[in-house]
């Protein structure tokens, strides 16, 4: 996994090279992405003529066609649309003129978006992507692979003659040298690379990332007779009823790539959407350990297989785990300042053993000290520990109808804070100097052994520290 830009500031620098002028009033610039003295990519960006740093501005990222470069998309109307809408505009080279859909290109684009976000006031909820032909699927592929709400994500994406399934296209073309070059071999040799760098893999849904597009609005256009049309139409049919925000051209014209798309219509359609950061349902195939909305897989058991995560928030404090495979740790980023007194997780899955963690901004994170299980056959908790701001619990369970609850214990004097006063009161209770009511007794019994004693005092001290 690549290190994030925030950890690479001393290694990465960007150099302003020159300003381009195509006869428009907006400013257009070209810069290079340089790491450890090596030039990794070149990108061009446009500042709208009415840019105001006091306001947030949407960003349109556009991906060139095969054989193009970072300047090619300026000969479409998308740059004029961006300027008229007061959007910033980014056109990456992507490391090569002959392929976008690979991990290095996605890394370059992410770093360029992060850099642009540091220089200009970008609306992170309205980052749109569009591409033609080779670049036509790049927005959907980037969206599949970037679901961490703490990093740039895609609010909506548009495809013009996009290669949505790289393996299918490989065989349609009877081989593709650029795919072999960037993926490291043919589909028989490196199937995982083809699947993780495609919007969809039609032949086997278990090895496809199209699940990740559930909350990403999709705009699909194509030429009348080109094979890319079946890619778009088959994906549209596959996602019907699953992704509720899709548009597909029902009356296509001839042509290929950017020539088939109406720039004004595509921008109008995308502009109605903002990023979905906190969906109720999460159903994803992750190609590597990482975060998808409010869940995060920390490890990957088999590197060339997807991590399967399917979870659902039933209400504000109850979560359903439908599937979790190929990882041993699932973290829930769900705590906040208004979290209720308990969090429940339900699982209906085959026999398994793994670790669950919870993390967030709430000060209650430090008061999660016990775990209880309800409605299960053979569930138990093996270990409970806190690492930084995440609570981890190792669990194993039987085959169905399992649940467990993280409980927040309020303090002894009920003032909402654990401090030395709670220790003094508990000592006085143990010595018989004062008598706790039932709530205070329950809160003071931190190890949940049915009594209040010196072991609870030790836990209180550790808690306060």
Question: What this model shows, in words?
Answer:
The protein has 465 residues and is an alpha/beta fold. Helix content is 22%, strand content 31%. A nine-stranded mixed β-sheet has the order 1-2-3-5-4-6-7-8-9, with helices on both faces. The protein has helices at 78-84, 103-119, 138-145, 166-172, 177-183, 191-196, 228-239, 263-271, 420-430, 438-444, 454-464; strands at residues 12-20, 27-35, 38-47, 57-63, 88-92, 122-132, 156-160, 218-221, 246-248, 281-286, 290-292, 295-297, 307-315, 318-325, 329-335, 342-347, 352-360, 368-374, 380-387, 390-397, 402-408. The radius of gyration is 26 Å and the shape is elongated. It has three domains: 5-271, Rossmann fold; 281-408; 420-464, no CATH class. Residues 1-24, 337-343, 346-353 and 361-409 have low confidence and may be disordered. A hairpin with a 2-residue loop joins β2 (27-35) and β3 (38-47).
């Amino acid at each position: 996994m690549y290190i994030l830009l925030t950890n690479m500031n001393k290694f990465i620098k960007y150099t302003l090279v020159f300003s381009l002028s195509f006869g428009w009033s907006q400013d257009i610039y070209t810069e290079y992405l340089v790491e450890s003295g090596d030039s990794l990519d070149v990108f061009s960006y446009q500042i709208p003529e009415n840019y105001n740093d006091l306001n947030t501005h949407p960003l349109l990222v556009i991906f060139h066609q095969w054989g193009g470069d970072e300047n090619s998309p300026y000969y479409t109307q998308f740059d004029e649309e961006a300027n008229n809408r007061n959007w910033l505009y980014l056109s990456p080279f992507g490391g090569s003129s002959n392929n976008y859909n690979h991990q290095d290109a996605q890394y370059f684009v992410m770093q360029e978006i992060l850099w642009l976000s540091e220089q200009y006031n970008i609306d992170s909820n309205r980052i749109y992507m569009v591409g033609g032909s080779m670049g036509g699927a790049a927005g959907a592929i980037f969206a599949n692979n970037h679901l961490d709400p703490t990093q740039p994500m895609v609010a909506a994406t548009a495809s013009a003659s996009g290669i949505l399934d790289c393996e299918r296209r490989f065989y349609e073309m009877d081989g593709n040298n650029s795919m072999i070059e960037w993926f490291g071999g043919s589909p028989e040799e490196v199937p995982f690379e083809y699947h993780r760098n495609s919007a969809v893999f039609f032949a086997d849904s278990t090895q496809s990332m199209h699940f990740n597009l559930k909350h990403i609005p999709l705009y699909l256009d194509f030429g009348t007779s080109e094979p890319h049309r079946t890619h778009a139409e088959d994906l549209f049919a596959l996602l019907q009823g699953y992704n509720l925000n899709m548009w597909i051209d029902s009356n296509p014209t001839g042509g290929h790539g950017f020539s088939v798309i109406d720039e004004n219509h595509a921008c109008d359609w995308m502009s109605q959407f903002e990023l979905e950061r906190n969906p109720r349902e999460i159903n994803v195939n992750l190609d590597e350990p990482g975060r998808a909305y409010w869940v995060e897989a920390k490890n990957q058991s088999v590197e060339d297989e997807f991590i399967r995560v399917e979870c659902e928030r039933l209400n504000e404090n109850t979560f359903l785990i439908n599937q979790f495979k190929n990882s041993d740790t699932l973290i829930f980023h769900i705590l906040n300042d208004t979290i209720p007194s308990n969090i429940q997780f339900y699982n209906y899955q085959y026999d398994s053993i793994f670790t669950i963690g919870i993390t967030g901004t709430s000060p209650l994170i430090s008061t999660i000290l016990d775990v209880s299980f309800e409605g299960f056959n053979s569930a138990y908790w093996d270990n409970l520990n806190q690492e930084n701001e995440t609570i981890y619990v190792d669990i194993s369970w039987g085959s169905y109808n399992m649940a467990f609850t993280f409980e927040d214990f309020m303090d002894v004097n009920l003032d909402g804070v654990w401090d030395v006063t709670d220790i003094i009161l508990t000592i006085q209770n143990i010595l018989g100097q004062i008598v706790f009511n039932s709530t205070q007794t329950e809160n003071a019994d931190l190890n949940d052994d049915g009594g209040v004693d010196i072991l609870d005092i030790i836990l209180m001290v550790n808690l306060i520290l």
